Amino acid sequence: MNIKVQDSIVPKYDFDVLSPSKAAFYSAILPGLGQAYNKKYWKIPFVYGALGTGIYFYSANNKNYDRARTAYKLRLNGKPDEFDGLGDHILLSDDALVTAQKGYKKDRDLSLLVTVALYVLQILEASTNAHLIQHNVDNNLSIEPTIIQDFNSNNAIVGASLSFKF
Question: What is the C-alpha to C-alpha distance for residues 83 and 66, in angstroms, rounded to an integer?
Answer without folding.
Answer: 13
